[in-house]
Amino acid sequence: MSRLEEILAYNREFVNNKEYEPYLAEKYPKKELLVVTCMDTRLVELLPKALNLKNGDAKVVKTAGAMVTEPYGSVMRSILVGVSLLKAKEIFVIGHKGCGMEGLRAGSVLEHLEEHGVTQNEIEAVREQGVDLHKWLAGCANVEEGVMNSIRLIQNHPLLPQEIQVHGLIIDPETGELELIHDGRK
Questions:
Q1: What is the pLDDT along the chain (186 residues), one digit of tens a residue?
Q2: Was 140 annotated as part of a binding site?
Q3: Hey, what domains does the chain have and what are their CATH numbers?
Q4: Is 96 annotated as ligand-binding?
Q5: Who contacts 161 (Cβ-Cβ below 8 Å, separation ≥6)?
Q6: Which of 59, 73, 88, 91 could, after both became Cys, cross-link 166 (CB 3.0–4.6 A)?
Q7: Would you say 172 is a known binding-site residue?
Q8: Which DSSP letter does residue 140 get?
Q9: pTM above 0.90?
């Protein structure tokens, strides 16, 4: 059975047995939070537990490295929808120790893509569209810098309402301990 077939079979049982009922929630976040965090697998269950977040408490946007790098990209659009239409009043940008984006170089990503069949012609076609792949695929020097760069981009966005607080934290993916690196109330 393929992974897709396995998931679909499980889902049929999940729905038939009404296992979704404990997860029913409102559209708007009860705690009025929007969390931007990393897509790291260690954070899937740990992060909500460490923040005392339950289903329906917050909107969560996941990116590689909790990085917001494009002022008019899909991540920033999600943030703006979250604070305007979905009633989030605070944003938490939460990176984590030992993040794979720390020190990531675009060259290693491109090499891996080539090993999996992406051709030089395809890479050049992207460059010809004006994309600086080395900038676009790069990580950050360290997690704190990545979080702070994201905070600056969010806070300085011309469409972000002034009253929205943007906080920065780093979580330990082993213990769940949070370190505050930027208090958006100040």
A1: 899 999 999 999 999 999 999 999 999 999 999 999 999 999 999 999 999 999 999 999 999 999 999 999 999 999 999 999 999 999 999 999 999 999 999 999 999 999 999 999 999 999 999 999 999 999 999 999 999 999 999 999 999 999 999 999 999 999 999 999 999 998
A2: no
A3: 26-104+139-182 (3.40.1050.10)
A4: yes
A5: 83, 84
A6: 91
A7: no
A8: B
A9: yes
